[in-house]
Amino acid sequence: xxxxxxxxxxxxxxxxxxxxxxxxxxxxxxxxxxxxxxxxxxxxxxxxxxxxxxxxxxxxxxxxxxxxxxxxxxxxxxxxxxxxxxxxxxxxxxxxxxxxxxxxxxxxxxxxxxxxxxxxxxxxxxxxxxxxxxxxxxxxxxxxxxxxxxxxxxxxxxxxxxxxxxxxxxxxxxxxxxxxxxxxxxxxxxxxxxxxxxxxxxxxxxxxxxxxxxxxxxxxxxxxxxxxxxxxxxxxxxxxxxxxxxxxxxxxxxxxxxxxxxxxxxxxxxxxxxxxxxxxxxxxxxxxxxxxxxxxxxxxxxxxxxxxxxxxxxxxxxxxxxxxxxxxxxxxxxxxxxxxxxxxxxxxxxxxxxxxxxxxxxxxxxxxxxxxxxxxxx
Amino acid sequence: xxxxxxxxxxxxxxxxxxxxxxxxxxxxxxxxxxxxxxxxxxxxxxxxxxxxxxxxxxxxxxxxxxxxxxxxxxxxxxxxxxxxxxxxxxxxxxxxxxxxxxxxxxxxxxxxxxxxxxxxxxxxxxxxxxxxxxxxxxxxxxxxxxxxxxxxxxxxxxxxxxxxxxxxxxxxxxxxxxxxxxxxxxxxxxxxxxxxxxxxxxxxxxxxxxxxxxxxxxxxxxxxxxxxxxxxxxxxxxxxxxxxxxxxxxxxxxxxxxxxxxxxxxxxxxxxxxxxxxxxxxxxxxxxxxxxxxxxxxxxxxxxxxxxxxxxxxxxxxxxxxxxxxxxxxxxxxxxxxxxxxxxxxxxxxxxxxxxxxxxxxxxxxxxx
Lengths: 378, 369
Description:
Helices cover 40% and strands 20% of the residues of chain A. Chain A is of the alpha/beta class. In chain A, strand 3 (100-103), helix 4 and strand 4 form a beta-alpha-beta unit.
């Protein structure tokens, strides 16, 4: 028996060695840079590109760039916020000649982009959600949208359609960008129904499918009939709510396909407009603004089409407010505004506008408005 | 093809004494099995991608290019391997005692957190002192974490596999609590983090390369672990207790102390990996520490059959698979999961090939030698 094995194994080794040689010879020429003439753009996602959420919204933007002539798009998904993203960026630059990179996860910025960007002055790094300051390298840019405007519209629609007036919010972490959404959603609902409340549950991290489902179920058990969320993938919350017969307002991108019955509307990123614009500017050699933010007015966000359960009154009011937001005449966080402990957080006459003047204050938000049931740590 | 060079470096337990020839023969015999398993895995993976509609030859070519095909790729692979070398020791050392510890991720997280606490707390002291203290404290933190699992096993009979895994969740919860609450840098708005340990305290790269010093720490740790296990009375006692714990007790070996010490050492290695992540990569403690190195370390340890020296080439091999994943995604539209599939195939094939251990004699001894 032993000798049989010897023969087989030896033959196998020889065959494999021959195969490997052929592989190397056949494959290597194509592995060279084949797109040197094209303008190469790289996208890096922290999760799967088809997560019905944060990453899918960016991948939709990448898909829009792919349609442009003379552009080669590179994509990598599930890249952690450590050495891996540094190497992915450098690999896209060194091995594929990328000139413009969109490393899209918040955690890629500091220290990873800040470490790599100075080494490649001719490559542009565009990062979502960061706060670029003029002390940082000029080849880095940060862009983001005031998506809480769309969560405000979500709240108006939910305020109209909810029968119990009890709304639910599944949130990842108590950080400013999440608190903006919870507060805007609640303020929108209270505009319609001053008694409306938003129960908030923090799951602790961006992707916690089991906890998200538990949070959603327990809120529905307590009488919540409409939920929304701010986690990386709204898929679990949306599907859980749909199964329980509750209504959902979406986030990041449209989840309408996951909840044909209960999907009301959703707060969506509009990267499909922004990314081709940035790529065009980069190809022409124009400078993309280092700090770029906007809401409905600037076209950085959009609203999912209304679902079947949204009535005419809800549509009318939501459309009116959206028109005012698009015109730039509507403020969401304006005084007098109290938090849910009764403390005044914005004085009468003061406001946090959706503009660059208020960005730092918005990004430092640490309160939950009156009507939110939940606590902040610290 | 990829990684054969790496495996060739696999050392053999027990070196030749009188003549070099039997040693070489033993080495060759020891190498045949992992190399064959690697080739079989690559062939199976080729079959898998062929079903996904991709030419396997292109896959192999990109894998080679992305992992070891250029100096950039080599550095990429080795950098990714550095934390794996240390976290693999967290499984490999207790395995000598027959303990199956899979909680290296928790020890890494605790090590990283405590390294950051020390680094921030000692800001202003001489960088070398800060770095050494960070490393020491991280090792103690990680060591205690895994020693907890060892202690539960020894005194309360709790299964160490389960307890070490559950301790990971506790470690992550502690990390999140500390960096979101008492130890949060007020400037870290949307990504709760500890304050930065400061540029001066970073350990940086090996001169002339883009590989951080974590690699050297890993190599030293593996050599120490090898000597400890194979060349000392302590290591011998540990292996005896791992082979037959009742016999070990009969001859009076201090089994409890062995369990705690070996678990502590394993945890210390993973804790050091956490310190390296903080001091060479992240500059602060935050949720980015939870990158799964602890779990990939388990795979590395098994593939290396818990041999501390074999861990190094295996970790580099897996680092190479990780490094090549990007090219496969970018050029062949394979999903990220493709590299996970290859890791899975490799794991199963290597475990299956253990069946043939000792039964394959491609270089048999001849009479008279």
